[in-house]
Amino acid sequence: MQKTPFSFDLQMFSQNFEFNNKEIIGKGFDSVVYKVINKQDRNEYALKLTSFKDLQHKFNFQQEIRLLYHLNHDHIVKFYANSLDGSCILIEYMPFGHLGKLIDQRDIRIDIRIVKSIVNQIMSAIKYLHSMNIVHGDIKPENALISRDFIIKICDFGFAIVANSPNTKLRGGSEGYTAPELLINENYDAKKCEMFSLGVLFFVLFMGYRPFLSTHPQKQDKFWNYIKNQEWDKFWKIFETKNPDIGFRNYIQKLLCADPKERYTIEEAMQDDWFKSNQYTAQQLAPHLQKLLIKQ
Ligand SMILES: Nc1ncnc2c1ncn2[C@@H]1O[C@H](COP(=O)(O)OP(=O)(O)O)[C@@H](O)[C@H]1O
Ligand SMILES: [Mg+2]
């Protein structure tokens, strides 16, 4: 496969690729992802197809293409090509699907060292993006995929923005992962919003369920209200049977705090002593992930 991304038309696509019995490997809000096979070398790829429901959606998908074209990072899914009409993209196939798989169907907690190492891989992608003023905008387990070599890579740049001015607005997000300031629609720092979503992802991966269902002021989520009112003791009491250790609690508080000024930046989050200690490299993590995924 060529290194530089290319554009293809339908004829070129059908000459070079075939569907794998139309196998659907994923579905998003308004996209379907198929597994396709290169007819020459039999390598597998993922084809993300979208229908342009409205102009906003068309913009989101074109933004995803524009950004993926330029991105190059070990923990971001590799982009190969897009169709000339901009309705589908060809990306690296990630056979183990998304991280949500690790959360569902399990009754025991994943070892904190494994969780930290997974989150660290996602954070290194976010650090790369934030250093270029790009904000992913929809960090959640469903948008983090597992490669053949058990490397974590983020996908789905449909809500990503280039935050060149301090008040650039985000275009979306997923309920339960969105920072409170974004919903109140004050001026906000999009990178700090991303750190909040990372906090929810970390919490979910370790605890097995979400810390709250919504941060929306109209929803009056009881669990979120504890955090908003800085009643962390009451919040942690809900989870006491799982007895998360003090290092985890303190770290989560630096990500899920309601005040973005108190919240860690990506650099601070990666430099935190508790987070940094006791981590696996991507290579060391691979056999642990393999074990977890194959157990299911
Ligand atoms: N490259 C890929 N390899 C394997 N599965 C994928 C790939 N890309 C996406 N998926 C699956 O499809 C789902 C939807 O893709 P995503 O890009 O997140 O679309 P949407 O923008 O509609 O949310 C993902 O959550 C994942 O399960
Ligand atoms: Mg998605």
UniProtKB/TrEMBL annotation:
Domain Protein kinase stretches: 19-275
InterPro entries found in the cross-reference section: Prot_kinase_dom
Database matches in Pfam families: Pkinase
Lineage: superkingdom: Eukaryota
MF terms in GO: ATP binding; protein kinase activity
PANTHER family: SERINE/THREONINE-PROTEIN KINASE (PTHR24347)
Name assigned to this protein: Protein kinase domain-containing protein
Lineage: Eukaryota, Sar, Alveolata, Ciliophora, Intramacronucleata
